[in-house]
Structures are given as C-alpha cells and as structure tokens.
Amino acid sequence: MIVHVCNNYVSSKVHGKIVEKISVLFPGHQSVFIPIRKKSDAWVNSFFSGDVSFKYSRYPRFIKYFPFIKVLYNFLKFRRFFKGLDDSLPTRSVLAHTLWTDGSIAYFAYKAFGLRYSVVIRNTDINIFIPKLPQYRWFVKKIISNADSVIFVNGVYQQRLSERFPELYRCIRNSWLIYNGLDDFWLGSKFFGDFSSRDCVCYVGAFNHNKNLRNIYGSVKEARKSNPKIKLVLIGGTQAEFLKVVQSDVIPNWVSVLGKVKEKEVISSYLRRSFVFSMPSFSETFGLVYLEALSQGCNLICSRGEGVDGVVFGDHITLVDPNDVNEIADAVLNYYGRDFPSGNKKAISEFLDEFSWERVAHKYFDAIPK
Asked: What does the UniProt keyword field contain (predicted)?
C-alpha cells in the first residue's frame, strides 16, 4: 500500500492525476491523507475507486502562521489516521507531495513507524519555505537526508537547490526528475498543419508583470512595422488588466483580449490559428502551457534559463532576453509563414508523448521505495 500525504490536494489537480494513474497502472491499495483548512474542501478532487481511500483532515486556520506547529498538529492527525488503516494491507511507503508541509509528516512517520518515504520538491519549497525559514533548515536537512528518493518536478529547481543550498543538495541519496503530465486532451488532439493561414501570436496565462505581457505586446507592435498582417491573441485576463499591464488607453484592432477561457477546445482553436506562442516570462518554473501550444503546432518563444529552456530543443523554440523587445520581435518575424520541417513533426509528437500522465505515474511508482 502507498500512503500519500498532500496538503495541496484540494488546490491542484496534479496530485489527483498521479494517484489516479498509479491506481490504474499498478493495482493495489492507496490511501491519501489530505489536511484541509475549510470544511467545504472535503472531497474536493476525490474520485471513486475501490483501490483508493481519502482522508480529509481539518486543522485550525490560525496555525498556518506557525509552520512547525502546523506540521506537528497534522502529524498527530496523521498518526491517528495511520493507526486506523487496515492491518491486512501492508504499508510499503509514503509519498510526500511537497518537501516542507508533507515531507515533515513523512519524516515523523518514518521515525514513529519506520515508514520509508519519497519527497517531492516544488515551487513553494524552493522559493518560500527553504529560503524564508532558515531557522528550520536543520529540519529540512533531516527530511531530505532520510528520504529514499527526492523528486524534482523541474530541472530548474534541482539546479537552484544545488547552487543556493548545496548543504541540502548533498544530502540527497537518490534524485529523480519527473515533470508534470500533459492533459490527455492535448495529446489526443495534436495538430501540426495549416501554417499558410496562421497569422497570430498567442499568449495564454495570467495578465501580470512576471508574464511580461507588456513586452509581448511591444514585440508584436514592433514586428508589425515589418509585417502588418501579424495579430496578437491574449487569453487569460480582462481588457482592463491588459490596459493596465501594457500602460495603454486603448486596445488596437490587431489585438484580441479573450478573457479567461476554461474550455480546452476553444483555447486549441486559437492556438491552431497562431504560428507562435510567446511567453518570455521574467521567472517561469516550467509551464505546461508551452507544451500545450507545441501540441497545436505553435513555435515557442521562451526566456533564457526559464520555462522549457533545457527541455524543448530545436528550431521550433527561440530563447530570448525577456527585457529585449527587439529580440522578441525578431523571433516573431522569423517564425511567420514558416512550417515545421516534416521530420520534426514526428519527433515533436513522440517528445510530447513522454509527458502523458501514464508515463509520469510510472516514473513516480518507480521512484517510490518498495
């Protein structure tokens, strides 16, 4: 039996996908322990399966301001939960879905019950808990050094841990790099054709400073001086947010602001009209949206050292300085009217298949101690 510890289960569907796909590929019981702040969070993202059980455990809201007390409180709740599990289902291991909030519980379970565990290092661990809680770094070191395996969801995280906190990185006994998976929709609807009619630069995401919407807009404005046929399609924010971010009073007729769109089919239809997906963020952990765009035949513009730099290779990606509007504009112009080479289409398709949730779950299962 695998026991999952996941504080963020309610807020992200990624964790549920991992549990679900493991249950399909590797029959055997799984139990998921989920600390929650609100009663209404109970059963969010759960699913019916005879091999998977869920335990939503509520904790007082105020203890979120006391990280170590929160960890101890949730471990005591976990202890009661674990003792109530069916003894006929031998527990093999624990998968902690984050380093601090879940890995702490897994470490205490290791000390109390001898349970071996794997821990996943995510964005909040690298950018919040480790750097901003130096007083608990000794404890983080214990979590990492006693884990059978440490899983990174991004190569950038692995590099940052090794460079910024080498004393922690050296404690890792066995490391894995496992990216999140692509939704089946994108893998089942790949499209690499019809480049002759593609005239849009597309962006999908939040309308904020980090995503560099101002320079995305500025680069297309600059590119239109050479090719006025180029248009810009923006999905994920309001017209007011767009005007505020780009510091403009009007929306030009060559810009379409579509707001937040949940329907994948609608997003796909706009990506298929676009010859390039541009997201030169100032800081980007990975961004599955790059791969979603690639699956619909979009070339990619990404910042150096961010996003899918080091993951996607080839002529269909251009790495830029996010502060250089002219460099971004040159990348836009370079891709206009240019089809993927025929040999690349097959290679890209096979590359994307590596991000199926089935393959991701298989890697997680292999990484978990047996």
From this structure: Transferase
The token pair at 220 is 């297309």
- Closest by CA to 239, choosing from 268, 217, 264, is 217
Dump pLDDT digits (tens) for 287-304: 899 999 999 999 999 999
- Asked whether the beta carbons of 144 and 168 are under 8 A apart, the reply is yes
pLDDT in tens, 6-15: 999 999 989 9
How much of the chain is in helix, strand and coil states, percent to nearest 5? 45, 20, 40
CA dihedral defined by 355, 212, 204, 195, rounded to 10 degrees?
A: -80
State which H helix or E strand residue 326 sits in: helix 325-335
280 three-state secondary structure: coil
The structure tokens 């309610």 sit at 10
Q: Which two tokens stand for residue 340?
A: 């993927």
Report the distance separating Cα 49 and Cα 283, nearest Å: 38
Lowest mean pLDDT among 78-82, 156-160, 283-287, 350-354: 283-287
Average pLDDT, the chain: 94
Could you tell me which CATH class the domain 2-181+356-367 is placed in?
A: alpha beta
Q: Tell me 37's DSSP state.
A: S
- Return the DSSP state at 182: B
370/240 Cα distance (integer angstroms): 53
pLDDT band of 73, cuts 50, 70, 90: very high
CA distance 151 to 175: 6
Which residues face 82 on adjacent strands? none
Count of other CB atoms within 10 angstroms of residue 291: 25
What would the CATH number be for the domain defined by 184-353?
A: 3.40.50.2000
Every domain of the chain and the residues it spans: 2-181+356-367, 184-353
For the stretch 128-180, pLDDT in tens is 999 999 999 999 999 999 999 999 998 889 999 999 999 999 999 999 999 99
Please report how the helices 239-246 and 213-223 are oriented relative to each other, as an axis angle in degrees rounded to 10: 80
Total-model pTM: 0.87
Sheet of strand 2-5: strand arrangement: 52-58, 30-36, 2-5, 93-96, 116-121, 149-152, 175-177
What is the distance between the alpha carbons of residues 150 and 316, in angstroms, rounded to a whole number?
A: 32
Residue listed under structure tokens 């910024």: 164
